[in-house]
Amino acid sequence: xxxxxxxxxxxxxxxxxxxxxxxxxxxxxxxxxxxxxxxxxxxxxxxxxxxxxxxxxxxxxxxxxxxxxxxxxxxxxxxxxxxxxxxxxxxxxxxxxxxxxxxxxxxxxxxxxxxxxxxxxxxxxxxxxxxxxxxxxxxxxxxxxxxxxxxxxxxxxxxxxxxxxxxxxxxxxxxxxxxxxxxxxxxxxxxxxxxxxxxxxxxxxxxxxxxxxxxxxxxxxxxxxxxxxxxxxxxxxxxxxxxxxxxxxxxxxxxxxxxxxxxxxxxxxxxxxxxxxxxxxxxxxxxxxxxxxxxxxxxxxxxxxxxxxxxxxxxxxxxxxxxxxxxxxxxxxxxxxxxxxxxxxxxxxxxxxxxxxxxxxxxxxxxxxxxxxxxxxxxxxxxxxxxxxxxxxxxxxxxxxxxxxxxxxxxxxxxxxxxxxxxxxxxxxxxxxxxxxxxxxxxxxxxxxxxxxxxxxxxxxxxxxxxxxxxxxxxxxxxxxxxxxxxxxxxxxxxxxxxxxxxxxxxxxxxxxxxxxxxxxxxxxxxxxxxxx
Length: 533
Description:
Number of strands: 23
Radius of gyration: 24 Å
Helix content: 25-40%
Largest sheet: 9 strands, mixed, barrel
Shape: globular
């Protein structure tokens, strides 16, 4: 949207500012599958049931009661989401049937969402498929043998012993320092390098590989580089052939770097229905309509604790998280994106959001809590009607409120305010008040962004700010409120991204001060501006 805006997103949401490839590839014939030796699983297989039609083309839909769930509890879920800012959507699948699926205002119904680190679980799945097909010998292969062209001239014994499994379990031994714990220091460094693969491989070793879990985005990027090496395709192209295509996932975006290596740690954009398809594949032990997309053994290994997480209450498998206490496995992305599997309940849950936390408590209380039986329940027309009504409210947003403008709105209407020199690229802003709405205009050194502002308590979705970054169309929507007779607050939502915040403008004669607050990350800046026309 603007330079400073997206610098913050890179730093806090793991978005690499690189030009990337599309999801369009040609289909290659499948390779011969090879056996894989993996650890046994503690995750129970889903109960035997009369499965729903496979959702390759579309999901089958059912009432909650037909799948043994209480609609009244799901009403509580949607109401809680409406009351908690930052949720974009929820999808609940039980026994292969969608029992609840809704977006929340202002998120459009048919829009892809940035998955962030949910991407890692997809990369892990593709590694399993490559092993199943004999393209990769197994998880015990040393990384330096596969990526030999990018290995430093001198490699110590620790680095030479680092295996594919160490990457999968985030137990590389590398001194990555590329997560929020280190304020993205390592991530910034390798994104700025000329050769990302060589840079990550050249990182010093902090300890013996395989001994300790340390979250490392570079590990997932190396998995993507390995896929490029052993398949001759980018991870996105390989996924299109062997994973996305068979599952019916056709509309997605996945960025790549200048060398054509897919961003294996983030930057996959999917529809929520397609996120659910990936979860359903794992719930069905890698089978999809009679075709074993990824081996049952790999699914079990991915969702079984594999790493030593001394610093976490959860466990980690092969690029999947595990909440062992409740036998859940989940793919988790920044800002509240996740795909949760509860095999005991034959359940897949997908959330997309713009929050700084995630929603296991919502799943446990309001979704698993809605499960009353393995068998159908009696129909409950009253609760089902209430669920339909609350979903309608979630989608439409709050009722429009009366608009009242203070006297200062007339004074600043259409006036151009120029910012002091700043590192974020801000040049100027203008606010125009038009009837019951407004238009907000931001100027930067190399761009202008303009969008409608709702003044009635609702986001102005009809005329959003639209722009393009990394070949992906981006959209932001705005709504504004007067905090007092000289303070105007514009709340923004970046559609499909975990980015949500506010601009607060305080006007004093011919000057203004803007406070730019990114609520998803807690970051903020102050800038002063002067009226020039």
